[in-house]
Amino acid sequence: QVQLVESGGGLVQAGGSLRLSCAASERRFENFAMGWFRQPPGKAREFVAAISWSGGSTSYADSVKGRFTISRDNAQITVYLQMNSLKPEDTAVYYCAARPSYYSGSDYYEETDYGSWGQGTQVTVSS
Prior knowledge:
Elements: E1 4-7, E2 10-13, E3 18-24, E4 32-39, E5 46-51, E6 58-60, E7 68-73, E8 78-83, E9 92-100, E10 116-117, E11 121-126
Parallel strand pairs: 2-11
Antiparallel strand pairs: 1-3, 3-8, 4-5, 4-9, 5-6, 7-8, 9-10, 9-11
């Protein structure tokens, strides 16, 4: 397992932007596919975005496509989630997750696809 620590959450007005970061403890970071999930108040956790170990493949939930961008810096052992044009419905606790993978794709959409999780960071979007 790898330890993950998210940061960058906060309060932002609708239409604004935030960038979340997820720092990993594992130096073999390039051996892991990474994902972002979120849990809105009173709802189940849901998939947001995923990125392959190389960064060459990304996947997004339909609700964030075109507004959010996932990226990674393997040298800094960090994955990012750039969130633009934020909406009140984006309000949630955001979690990053990791799974060992040498697969070139990023179609890891389920919580059960991942073995390591961060503690979460709160994002609140006001209308």
